[in-house]
Amino acid sequence: MNLRIDAEKKQGSFLLQLKADVSGDRIGIFGQSGSGKSTLVHLISGLLQPDRGEIYLNDECMFSSVKGIDLSPERRRIAIVFQQAMLFPHLSVKANLLYGYRRCHAENRRIKPEALIALLKLQPLMQRGVHNLSGGEKQRVALGRAVLANPRLLLMDEPLSALDDTLRFQIIPYLKSVSEEFGIPYLFISHSILEMQLMTDRILVIRNGRMDETTTPDQLARNSMADNPKGYLNLLHLADPVLQNGLYAYSWGRNSLLISGGGADRASLFELSSREIILFKKHPEAISARNLLHCTVTEMFESDGRVGIVLSVNGEKLVAEIVRSAADELDITIDSPLFAAIKASSFRKLA
Ligand SMILES: Nc1ncnc2c1ncn2[C@@H]1O[C@H](COP(=O)(O)OP(=O)(O)OP(=O)(O)O)[C@@H](O)[C@H]1O
């Protein structure tokens, strides 16, 4: 998918001036509250008209003030999943799901309802009304309804921010798998760096109504390391734990990790803050941390006076964070061999 936008929109005293040319199937739009993300979503979907400029999706003109083109939202075939599910309250789950499908031209009906219902595990809910669904169930129905409209682009406008952490991480695999399974590219809007890391490959950063930069999730996490209370978040997908003296032992590439908050699930996602990793120049004699990893420095980066140390642990990547004086004292350079100590309780299970 390619999105080309060069447009302006004034909302009260707020001026949105956007210029971007971005390609990919999992694009993030990141910005703080009030930076203009939702306004951008409305401009792209056709719910709002730019004051001037143009918007192209895959070389097809959606809007051009010069050419006098302004395709209706239906003709753009862009579906939106909002923060609140916004289901039709008087319709059943089934009728909500089929709403977009029935309005979609027969030649565009590529995605079959049965396949989507199975993927989103909605079968048991089909005959129910939408009032007493849980927040996660509502969001799955809203996602299903958007996808069944057979859009060529899915706009996800903070779809996870109304959900608690447990539900958030349950919904993420559904968001990713519908896009992958049915080949629908998406724009994912959020102010969460963690969500950007989990959902996107390429990110447009908006600041005060301007497109600030195009970056990667990893670079965004690095740039925000000093400001983020959790530093840089390392994300580890681990599977098949073995219980050992009350801790869970996971294989991580050629390494083994001991984690206290593991679980019976076959596969889990953990976050590990860069601030939870203690670095040693020499092998420490005796420490309480249950994980001591031999590693090599592959990269170093600065983030507002803090130093990010990118480590290779037998080929697996981990980012640790120290203050500049510690980096100087330890005389850390690229290829320095180090030991990284991590407490078993430092890993937080997300899903
Ligand atoms: N109809 C309007 N009239 C006046 N100002 C508006 C209008 N709509 C939006 N704004 C202003 O435009 C700015 C951008 O709003 P927008 O909702 O796009 O931001 P956002 O990045 O999506 O924020 P959030 O993450 O909080 O949803 C805000 O300052 C907002 O108050």
From TrEMBL:
Entry keyword Transport: yes
Domain ABC transporter, residue spans: 3-233
UniProt-listed Gene3D superfamilies: 2.40.50.100, P-loop containing nucleotide triphosphate hydrolases
InterPro entries found in the cross-reference section: AAA+_ATPase, ABC_transporter-like_ATP-bd, ABC_transporter-like_CS, Mo/tungstate-bd_C_term_dom, ModC_ABC_ATP-bd, Molybdenum_import_ModC, Mop_domain, P-loop_NTPase
Entry keywords, A to Z: ATP-binding, Cell inner membrane, Cell membrane, Membrane, Molybdenum, Nucleotide-binding, Translocase, Transport
GO molecular function list: ABC-type transporter activity; ATP binding; ATP hydrolysis activity; molybdate ion transmembrane transporter activity
Record's keyword annotation contains Cell membrane: yes
NCBIfam families for this protein: modC_ABC
Record protein name field: Molybdate ABC transporter, ATPase subunit
